[in-house]
């Protein structure tokens, strides 16, 4: 059984992760001006694409963590969306945004 203390600890952990993700997203979206030589532009465009892909992944994780906060507020955090059984605490510690138990991941 998941305790209120565990859920509160998870809420604090999620809020901390959200703060870090927002900082990472902000940094990944900062783009330098393109260089003057065409080889500089090609390299910088490649870096732009990598940063953009990273930002997309970070935004997805942010969305999942924000949804986890909503489940905490709604009282459904830690309950598998498929079988309605509790999600394992170890799984929630590793992936606080988990929506499914290990059997249904």
- Residue stretches low in confidence (pLDDT < 50, at least 5 long) are none
What is the average per-residue confidence, as pLDDT, rounded to a whole number?
A: 89
Which sequence of SSEs, written as H and E, runs from N to C? HHH
Give the CA-based shape.
elongated
**Strand residue percentage:** under 5%
Instruction: Report the count of strand segments.
Output: 0
Number of helices: 3
Q: Main sheet? A: none
Termini Cα gap: 19 Å
Helix content: 55-70%
Using only CA atoms, what is the Rg? 18 Å
Overall structural class, as computed from helix and strand content, comes to mainly alpha
Give structural notes.
The chain is mostly helical. The protein is 65% helix and 0% strand. The mean pLDDT is 89.
Map the helices and strands:
Layout: H1 4-28, H2 38-74, H3 89-94
In short, what is this structure?
The protein is mainly α and 105 residues long. It is built from 3 helices and no strands.
Note the main attributes of this structure.
105 residues, mainly alpha, 65% helix
